[in-house]
Design brief:
This protein is an alpha/beta fold and about 375 residues long. It is built from 9 helices and 15 strands. The protein folds into 2 domains: about 1-240, Metallo-dependent phosphatases (Purple Acid Phosphatase, chain A, domain 2), CATH 3.60.21.10; about 245-370, no CATH class. Helix 1 links the parallel strand 1 and strand 2 (about 50). Helix 1 (about 20-45) runs parallel beside helix 2 and helix 6 crosses helix 9. The longest helix has 24 residues, at about 20-45.
């Protein structure tokens, strides 16, 4: 049997740090990526698609997110089994009640309640599901599978969402535990996991597929789905398939001169700019002219990438009142700069000096934006 394993779509995610336009672009792409998953399932002639939780960012997403997902699923007419995760847990009421109210195709099976295995494909496969009914569980919801009986000769497939202790990094949530040996203990032919957003093998028949559309700057092999060929009593054959659209790129740079700013621009330029989401982590020290150049570059980069996040709290600006003289600003601007320069040079330095430094920088950048720089 051929399976496709996916999880952690988190449809409706806000992406608030990128602004409204970029956030809308990223949210729309997630629906498109679900459609790409469905189209891949059709192309690869899979029998069953397993969605291991966190279909939605929360139980409160807008109706168009739900209808967008339903439209995307139509590209695959085979069986879907969809599990609630810790973001869209099956509380009462939940997003799953809203989805049922809208109506959904008969080939979409919502695994929202614990119970007997779901028998599909004319009884040749039994899917054992462990839906979350609250965001955090302290017990292993998959433990009951050990005693779950299924018809003789059918495949036993597990579908769960949570953390496998001892395998995930320390920052992963410790709640919703799943035993690393669950597949063996429950006699599973394959265990499809969700929650960790990267692709990871726990055992030859136990995998995290990761999110199909990357959503952060962590290098954890995300942006994939898994194609699985499974046969009773045999180790499954697993194939990673990259499917994500956007590339999340984290760039650190120490800037000491205008030349460094220009070099950063050369390093950022690639043919696939529009598919990149870039975070710049900047440190160092620039004079005001270098800072003004950087600001102009940031404005340009903001229009080239799908989204740009600039972190520059560790980047300082070297301020000199003589920089204003070279600009030949109006007299009142030069006078203000001189007064700010006195406050900035106060000894000992204090809060007032820091405020003056920031004011000087903003004043120079304002004048630069008006085109008064040499």
């Amino acid at each position: 049997m051929r399976l496709l394993h996916t999880a952690d779509w988190q449809l409706g995610k806000e992406f608030g740090s990128f602004g409204d336009d970029a956030g809308a672009l990223l949210r729309a792409q997630r629906i498109k990526t679900v459609r790409a998953v469905a189209e891949l399932a059709t192309t690869e002639k899979v029998d069953l698609v397993l969605v291991a939780g966190d279909v939605f960012e929360s139980n409160l997403v807008k109706p168009e997110v739900i209808t967008g997902m339903l439209g995307a699923l139509r590209a695959f007419s085979g069986d879907w089994v969809i599990l609630p995760g810790n973001h869209d847990y099956a509380s009462e009421p939940s997003i799953w009640d809203r989805l049922r109210g809208m109506g959904f195709p008969a080939n979409v099976h919502l695994a929202t309640t614990e119970g007997p295995a779901l028998l599909l494909q004319n009884g040749t496969v039994a899917v054992l599901c462990a839906p979350l009914v609250r965001r955090h569980e302290s017990v292993d919801k998959t433990a009951i599978w050990n005693d779950c009986e299924t018809p003789a000769g059918c495949l036993r497939i597990g579908l769960a969402h949570g953390s496998v202790p001892g395998f995930l990094p320390a920052e992963a949530e410790p709640s919703n535990p799943i035993a690393a040996d669950r597949a063996a203990a429950a006699r599973l032919d394959y265990l499809a996991l969700g929650d960790w957003h990267g692709t990871m093998e726990i055992a030859p028949n136990t995998w995290y597929c990761g999110t199909p559309e990357s959503d952060n700057f962590v290098a954890n092999d995300c942006g994939n789905v898994l194609l699985i060929e499974v046969e009773a009593g045999c180790a499954p054959r697993i194939e990673r398939r990259a499917i994500g659209h956007f590339q999340w790129r984290r760039k650190r740079a120490v800037l000491q001169s205008a030349g460094d700013v220009e070099q950063l621009g050369r390093e950022l330029s690639t043919p696939a700019d529009a598919q990149q989401i870039v975070r710049l982590e900047l440190s160092g020290s620039l004079d005001v002219a270098g800072r003004a150049l950087l600001d102009r570059k940031i404005e340009w980069w903001g229009g080239q990438f799908a989204a740009l996040d600039v972190r520059d709290s560790q980047l300082t600006t070297m301020l000199r009142t003589e920089d204003f003289a070279a600009m030949q600003p109006p007299g009142y601007v030069e006078a203000a700069a001189q007064k700010l320069g006195v406050l900035h040079a106060a000894d000992p330095p204090g809060d007032q000096a820091e405020v003056a430094a920031k004011a000087l920088e903003l004043l120079y950048r304002y004048c630069s934006a008006l085109g008064t720089t040499p």
